[in-house]
Structure prediction request, 585 residues.
Amino acid sequence: MSQSSPKLQLKNPFLSLLQKSQTLLQVLQIHAQLITTNLISDAFAASRLLDTIVSKFSNVNYAELVFAQIHQPNSFICNTMVKCYTKGSTPERALRFYAEMRRKGLLGDNYTYPFVLKACGAMCGLLEGKLVQGEATKRGFGSDVFVVNGLISMYCRCGEPGYARVAFDGFSEKDLVSWNSMLAGYVGCEEMEKAHNLFDEMPESDVVSWSIMIDGYGKKMCDVKRARAFFDCIPTKDLVSRNSMINGYAKVGEVEAAREIFDKMLQKNVISWSIMIDGYVRHGDSKEALNLFRQMLCQGIKPDRISVVGAVSACSQLGALDQGRWIHLYMKRNRLLLDVVVQTALVDMYLKCGSLDEACRVFNCMPERNVVTWSVMIVGLGMNGYGKEALECFARMEKERIPMDDLIFLGVLMACSHANLVTEGLSIFNQMREAYGVEPKLEHYGCLVDLLGRAGQLDEAQNIIQSMPMKPNAALWGSLLLACRIHRNVDLAEILVEMLAELKADDSGVYVLMSNIYADVGMWESMLKIRKLMKERKLKKETGRSVIEVDGNVEEFISGEWSHILREEIELVIWSLAKMSILAG
Prediction:
């Protein structure tokens, strides 16, 4: 491969276009021109092409194809490939590539080792990291600032902040990145006291340093008061620091506080929008999450994976099938990344909205499925009344020898519960430990209790709870109480309410359920006593809400609230339905 001339570096129009490229299609077209004009044989041109593919698109397969055509790769090209594997979440391949470099006699430099150390950290390869450190030291790069900073980050990613501190303290030419790397390491290992002390020792700090501390207290420790104290003291707040503070608030459920900062931001990026959308979804306001997603698109912000998954999850919670379909179509038309996480969210949305055909279509077309994907499919089939199909899906996993874990068994037990497949559910529960070596957790026992309770086997369900190897929680007793209403077992229900009261888990929902059990069997006096008790304790029934989708718009109705714009029309429909039911007898 020929060496490039200054003229090529400065004036070549293809390289200029490569620098300005925005899509992978544009890069492919420029690549074709480089081949046609034979400029691809120039080392500089090839390196620029490879760097564009890696830096802008992180396309590992395309980068490998380009690299394979380069006959004599230089250190920059090799470093770019190591960087590519590390960015592409394939750190093991980065190490294999580095080992191949050494076998071919290509020696690393002070840019190679930081990338390789980053790969070691990403795979928690402490031993491999130490070996790389040894080689870097032998080759005279042990005191290079890039290598030392990479070493600090690697040790912290491997959960060894002590080793990182030794490297940090032994380095006399620390720069701001060194301090921030050590600071981020302590935060990542949740050693906030040491992080705070180090922050106080810093000779200088920048907005990154402040943002690390905000992330540590807000996101890691859920201490938004201390995070806010740091945020308020930042000399100059930027986009990163504001996003960190929004993230801290959103994680602990203080979405209104997060929204206040968000609305005041003059500049927002896709991360800002994604944090807010995800926050609303996680804390039960899916309607506002979808409103924000639409606002983001109207402002020309291209959504990322987090915002797309958030929007799709919001559709799942609302049952907004039309909007979910539109988002799916938007992703296809705009060629957004449809990875396993996004596709799993789509499968979940279609299943929860009752569109099994579309869920199966997405599931069957997925090039890659993880444990969560299979679990979502199995649970969704069960919840929609397709218990046998859920078991067939489980059998397909066994046939394809897909590794089973506790999440899969939780999914199949939930499917059996919803489909009332008691015999099959009990058999699978017993197989967990015996055939697969998976120890049942509290959640699995909860599914088993729910399965037996729905089937009316209340005594058996109670025996399961009492013989469990772990202490039952309120949710298990509550599940059995719900089964008591289905099967009108007043005596057991009264015992369960007393037990929940002892656990201090007797909230309004428990007493409303008990009141309904009394009403179902005509024990009106007992029902009135419960209502009186609730009034004395000032326990309020949780407000009922329902959501429907009409012509792509989500409409929410709240029990007892008559402020809807179509109030009169709604009242007329309710009256008409009531009249029809009376006439029908």
Remarks:
- Strands lie at 545-550, 553-558.
- Residues 5-10 have pLDDT under 50 and may be disordered.
- The radius of gyration is 30 Å.
- The first strand starts at residue 545 and ends at 550.
